[in-house]
Amino acid sequence: MLLKWSSKAHALFTVCVTVVFFLPLYLVLINIFKDSKQVMGDPLGFPTSFTLANIRSVLTRPDHLIYTSMWNSTLITALSVCVVIVSSSMVAYYLVRNDSKKSRLLLVFFLFGLMVPTTIILIPVVKVLIAVHLMSTKTGLIAFYMGYYVPFGIFMYSGFIRTIPRELDEAAAIDGSSPLRTFWRIIFPLLGPCTSSVIIFIGLWVWNDFLNPLIIIGPIKGTTITAGIYRVIGQYSVNWGEMFAMMFLASLPIIFLYLALQRKFVEGITSGSLKG
Amino acid sequence: MPNGNKPALAVNKSLIKGKHEEKGSDSLLLPSSLKSRGVKKLNNKTTNFFLFVSHGLFIYLTFVIMPIVLCIYYSFTNFNPLFKGFKVIGFQNYADLLKDSAFGHAIVVTCIIALIVTIAANAMGLLSALLVNYKSWVYNASRTIFFTPQVLSPVVVGFIWSIMLTDDGVLNKLLGYIGLSGTSWLANPSIVVYSIAAVIVWQSMGFCTVVFLATLQSIPSDLYEAAKIDGCNRRQKFRHITYPLLAPGITINTVMLLISTFKVFDHVVVLTNGGPGTTSETISLKIINTAFNENQMGYASSMAVVLFALIGVISIVVVTGLKRREVEY
Amino acid sequence: MKKTMLLSLVLTVMIVVAGCGKNSSTSNNSPSEPAATTSAEAQPSSSSAASESASSAPEDQPAELSVLVFESPNLTAQFWDGAIKRFTDKHPNIKINKIVSPDLDRTKYAKQLLASGQFPDVLMSIDVQDFTNSKSLLPIDDKYLSKVPGAEGNAINGKVYQLPWGAQTIPYIYYNKKMFADAGATEPKTWAEFLDVIAKLKKAGFTPLLNGGGKDTWATTFLLDGIISTDVFTQDPDWVTKRKNGEVKFSDPLFKNAVKKWKSLYDSKSFNSDGLSIDYSLLQDAFLKGKGAMYPMGSWFVAAADAQKDIDVGVFTVPTDDGSIVIPYSVGGPASVSASTKYPEAAQMFATEFVTDAQNVVEIVKSDALIPLDGQTVDYQYSPLFQRVIDLIGQGKKVNAFSWENGDASMIAGMKDEMNKTAQNIILGKSVDSELAALDAKWEQTSARSK
């Protein structure tokens, strides 16, 4: 009996903590549907007159910011994740399977890239991108992401590939399969859990990235969603309702994915970091 | 996964792993039957290297290694796109850095944020993990909510909190309801840094929770059973079993948080943009402002080199220090 | 099948990589090439070629221009879009891409774009002097200058980099009439009367003065700019020129006393306490919502004051020690052209037509309360507040508005930003002496580099 009471108290306490923690997100959700008078006067209460005006005004901006930047973000994230996966899994496979002093050094050389923050290399990266005429293009940003996140991909894949028995490759090779074919037909499908970790990590980083798209894509050829909301937010600083609507819409895809694939998210992130 | 950071202890671990790896033969992509044909093997090896490694290596060299080299080179010049031409000026930038009190201040601010975030997020993450390490829909929901800020962009989080923290913002209104008077959370020079740290803790706590939950669940249950037989109470169990075995989780969280907060930029730019004045300017913000707003690229590069050295030293120290604590089981 | 697909994929990757490789190796050899200066030398020939073709053919050459604009509560997206549309309707061959600065500090953003090799073709209302060292801006051709009245007024070394279209007074002090009445205060003329008004307002429970800043550092210094304009520039109208020649310094008593006068208002807690955390929009909002009695601001505030009905706004000039009326006056305009533009003719044409288009001028007078220059006739019915702002100009002595000067009278590159930072540091309690000494050091350093 006492045990039951204490477990109930525990649950109640957990709920309280969670509610406090959730407060900022609650604010966003609740204030989207209020008119600006009520947002300022009573930010915490439920909407007295439910309105969609905030969302509508953000969606009908004359510059179509939400649509174009959402599309750009999706495109950039998807392509960056793809090229990083293709490239880093191949590099990791080669380096793990050709175990020699040289390849171990090369692996360490790649993993050194994990330590480099973007702020440090952004100035020269801009110079490099100008030189190859990729500045202010999506291609330039994707190429940069590929170079920057390949070390992370290699780090994840190299740990995982070690757990896959060599006999598989050897059997395939005896059957006359080329190394490339062996890798893509036999090994890569086995890397599924690792691949999903990589997708989640790099997908989140790229989608939420702010500084690089702000500087690299620039203002002329569209923008990503994070850089986009940063650019226009000045217009909303006195209109919280619309500002929250903007935040909500910008985060909607990622929140939706997170809630749908919650287990995969948490597994991917923990397995990724615990293995490290 | 505090945003944009990567597990830096990777370098260390894989080195260790590499040593344990059994010595393989030279070209494992080839079946042993082909190994006798020396010429073909050599050809294959170069082709394979080209097919498998060249793309990754090339793009990595172009966008990470070459920029680092360029950054070091720029740090010895007075490069500034607002002036014509530039020249090598030796260690002048570094000498200026030593005298630049604003940069010293930025280092201090960054260290304070890093320290608070690392300790607070770890502690709160552990407490919340212990709180929700049970099976029920209540705890599942809590876990989901704790982790949600983690998937949001720091820009979004920053904007949400900037509204909470302004003078007539939500937090002060809430404090007003319970009869307390708040302060200018983002304008009071003696508080603003802690406000920023608190926002980052709010966002990164969920990550720690998840990591600790995974570590807690990986502790073998027979250890607890043995402790039960020995007559340990709950506190003793925590102190002698749970806590020591949480070490890997602490290592991961600490390294991730330290490295991500040492380059903290997005939160600060959105919350205060370094203000009031330069009170909350972090190293990364100072680098980007100096480079892209004041256009002193050479000087900013020297700051970048210093930041890089700092991150390198800290990750090595922390990883070796925390690794020593970990217990094998 | 799959194998060939894979192979072709790998091949394309390799081709792309190889292509990049060639380019990046050239970039590798000459990392020292500053991106911004290259096209400056190539300019004259291409511009003359383009002008020839422009004069021979009545049709415009097809061109695509990127134009940096900024959106403020007064100058909304509709204003810029309308102006751009009027131009493109007249010149269908020219395509205009609007770039919007993320905040009102478009000079900062222009610098960022310059640093990242994305300098726009036409730039609106930037601080020209910051871009003269790198020769990033194109001197406007005489044939365009002749179409703009008063264009030569803002020349730097005889060259015009920015086309003007009106004047602003920066700042006047706007005040809440009801609060003044409640506190029994009247418009002050002398500094002593001003302090008296502040005391009365405080007694009545109002916040006497409002200031802002936060992310918009430039919004911090309006009153300081006013005090320096009235105290320093009346004594020494050529102060900036003398500073350039090293004859005067920021740390000289004349300048320092002006700063200390301003600082004393902070010491006496006459400002709102959250000034450094609210941005420009919130600052304006605070005044219009009645959170403070006095609001030092540029004349563009008139438009916002007239657009609301919450408070009754009055205006007076920055009080002086002897009570004389001094008008910090700034003639400026929007349009500058990049020296590296691919279409110098189209860009200059756009700049010229933008500042001379009758409807643009009416709209800027209406929505940003721009004060028309002599020789400009604008068909517009001024509001009483606007009329008062214009009338005050006639009653006082005009001086340059400090840190808002244009042309040869402007400070050297980057000093405006330094001044804003200095002001915030002083508000935060750093010593006036050391901050002004640092400002002098910064000036010397920059000017040495520019030679």
Automatic annotation (TrEMBL), chain A:
Ranges of residues in domain ABC transmembrane type-1: 70-261
Record InterPro entries: MetI-like, MetI-like_sf
UniProt keyword annotations, A-Z: Cell membrane, Membrane, Transmembrane, Transmembrane helix, Transport
TM segment ranges: 12-33, 75-96, 105-130, 142-161, 182-207, 243-261
Membrane topology: Multi-pass membrane protein
Gene3D superfamilies the record matches: MetI-like
Annotated compartments: Cell membrane
GO biological process: transmembrane transport
GO cellular component terms listed in the entry, alphabetical order: plasma membrane
Principal place of residence: membrane
A family per Pfam: BPD_transp_1
Similarity remark: Belongs to the binding-protein-dependent transport system permease family.
PANTHER family: ABC TRANSPORTER PERMEASE PROTEIN MG189-RELATED-RELATED, SN-GLYCEROL-3-PHOSPHATE TRANSPORT SYSTEM PERMEASE PROTEIN UGPE
Protein name (record): Carbohydrate ABC transporter permease
Protein's organism: Cohnella endophytica
